[in-house]
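Format notes (please read before filing issues)

Several people have asked whether sequences and structure tokens are stored in separate files. They are not. Every record keeps both together, in the order shown below: the sequence lines, then the token lines. Line labels are part of the format and must not be stripped during preprocessing.
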Amino acid sequence: MRTGRVILLTGAAGGIGAVVTARFLDNGDTVIATDSSEERLHSLVATHRARPELLTVCGDVSSETDVQAIAAFARARAGKVDILINCAGYFPVQPFVKIELQEWRRVIDINLTGAFLMIRNTLPLMAGRRWGRIINFSSGSVFKGTPFQSHYVAAKAGVIGLSRSLASELGSDNITVNVVTPGLTETEAVKRTMTAEFLAQRRTERPLKRAEVAEDLVGAVFFLASPDADFITGQIINVDGGSAMH
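Then the structure lines:
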């Protein structure tokens, strides 16, 4: 496995992002961890005992100014980015008829526009070096059209379209672009948003009848970041215990 890479990871202090961060640190990579919460970033640093390979910068991926600052931080501290992982997400549960335009735009901005801004501002740190990885988190909800999350599902479907177009566009510079689609992953944020009864029901509906946890996603992300995935681009790896088969 190639080590010593520079990973830029959004949503790095969240339930999934923190586990992904740990995996790359354990591999000997430098991780530039960004999150919208300074408090969560401090907790992430404390967890890893202030390891020098872990660099943190607070920012909102839906803000162009913040994303430009994140990219500037990466340039100043590492001089390059080998792998960009767009893991940040926002997933409110609302009936369609109650979604106000402001909330629609917020969900689209964080989940889709945030990926656009991160890629747009990170590419100068990746292009021209003949090797790069972009790994975008979408959602398994796009395959079934999950009710009460039409804004979220629309944004995550957009992430897939964006990723496929970029895979075609960036392949000439040997930059791959792929997507991971998690199923309903029982992070603390999900447990706060959804009822225990709903989560229990979802476990019974999938072939692998247990809770999906953040650790279930690390293998797919790490594989797509590895030399083993050198000839894979524009693809989706669906990690949902078999809920959607395609």
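For reference, the curators noted about this record: The chain has one domain: 6-185+217-236. The two ends are 29 Å apart (CA to CA).
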